[in-house]
Amino acid sequence: MARRAFFGALAGALLGAVAARAAYTAFTRKPPVGDAETWTRTNHRGEPITLLEGPAFVAGAGAAAAVIPGLPAKVRAAVLLAAVGSGGLGAYDDLYGATSSKGFKGHLSALAKGEVTSGAVKILGIGVTGLAAAALTSRGPVDTVINGALVAGGANLANLFDLRPGRAVKVGLLTGAPVLAMSLYRDDPVSAALAALPMGAAAALLPEDLGERAMLGDAGANALGALLGLAATITLGRPGRLAVLGTVVALTAASEKISFTRVIAGNPVLNRIDMLGRRPVEQASVKR
After folding, report:
1. What is the model's pTM?
2. How far, in Å, are 29, 70, 100, 131 from residue 125 at the CA level?
3. Residues sharing a CB contact under 8 Å with residue 180, sequence separation 6 or more, in sequence order
4. pLDDT in tens, the chain (288 residues)
């Protein structure tokens, strides 16, 4: 029985969940920046929704990483850097971002014309923090580049799914599960804790997301993807990491041409998973 990994995963999931819920409660009383209105946006139904779920995820994951027992110092630092770096840059885009340029191609095209968008700052910044986090846990320059690309790519891809209630969290849980299973199989408590931490924090905030009271936004989605990417870099061998990175790159490229929402809605299985726990599409707005 993989006892060490089991207890590592349990610690990561529980600490992540408790810290994320505590942070959400604290931030809804006193936001980290500005007031409640600063973080309020309009969702796909045209209803007001708060982005404070994102900072709560970042703060909760960071706090949990700081106290999880048994993590090597460099791994702990990498987790904090990936979460706070990608989450902070995502929060910057949430609060100050413009919508004139969209997608990877849009932001980089604007940058080529001399226009520095908030999205371009986020993309480049997450690339730098991803490499920095990977450098702390990788062996050699080649692995650092692969792992850094996986952390940054995971951060960007997770954000592409944050378009409907609970979707980014569900994708995070589904993609994190195989990494966690591999960690348990190998009885590796460090990688098990790293995989379980963001999954626990995200799951704890899922009711707010599904209830359409809050959403991850760029801050939370970027941090969730970055942490899952980091867990994958520590758990998988190079062939596995390259396969995951190729999938991330392919999906990111596909997002420039197709709508994930349309693809999901057109597939009965994916649509059922996507709608699980959500209000029906036709349901009228209710007061909360």
Report:
1. 0.90
2. 30, 29, 20, 10
3. 9, 192, 195, 196, 199, 231
4. 478 999 999 999 999 999 999 999 999 999 998 899 999 998 878 889 999 999 999 999 999 999 999 999 999 999 999 999 999 999 998 998 765 556 555 556 666 666 667 777 888 899 999 999 999 999 999 999 999 999 999 999 999 999 999 999 999 999 999 999 999 999 999 999 999 999 999 999 999 999 999 999 999 999 999 999 999 999 999 999 999 999 999 999 999 889 999 999 999 999 999 999 998 866 544 433
Paired tokens of 194: 């790293």
What number of other Cβ atoms are within 10 A of residue 35's Cβ? Answer: 9
Q: Tokens for 104?
A: 């990877």
